[in-house]
Amino acid sequence: MEILNEIWFDILIHGLTALNDDIFLVCGKSIKDSKVIVYDRNRAAVQEIVALSDKHPLAVEACSVSKCIYVLCVDEYLKCASVLRLTKDGERHQFSISLWVSGLRLPLASTIVSRNGRLSVTHGLDPVIIDVYSANGSLTLSVTVAGFRPIHRVIQKPDGNLVLGTLHGSRGERILTELGADGKIQRQCKSSLGMANVNEADEHGRIVLCKSFAEMELLDTDLNVLEFAGNQKNESWLFNAVSYNGERNEVMGSYIFVDGKSLLTIFRFTEA
What we know:
By secondary structure, the chain is mainly β.
């Protein structure tokens, strides 16, 4: 593992993603105070605050295929979730905001973008609905999954299979379950890391479970735990958000501290 960069912010980061040279952060002391901030890597400074009117952002996901940012939001009454799509005007360098998906079921909702540009939206609670949208906004797949609660993350593999990240039991064990196109379970993996973040790890389709740099697991495409070395950090600070940037083949993770600051760490898994 290679640590690429560390950036301190005087704000609380709850979600993050990256597109080109910009890092998009969901920040705020609470949901109703949250906003999307754009950080410019080249200038090493906050470039813009994106106004979302009466929407409160929960998470952000970048799509390198359609060159846009998806923002998972709730309304001002915290009763209904939706997904907004942000695209930047090439000449004016301003963001255009459009409603992409609406009417999502709460209390839980999450989003992730696959490498081919498909947006997966997970919403509801037992049963959970997983909707997959193409880059042009058309619904290509809708699956209702019962018996898994709660689902915190869904990763769509290149073969179309879905990997569900859930919690199980009183000890809060993290379970990864791969479902085929027929909805049948292909394989499962149990982790002892509890509330670890689940995300893609690298360009090879591997998956990382991050609780902290001291507690981390790397899985292959068949959900087998891999050994890896070269971890330069051993802090027990807990990640509150993790995101994979396929354009640069790097992982971003953030911690938040009681003094209102956040540390964003960018790292990469390297071959021996």
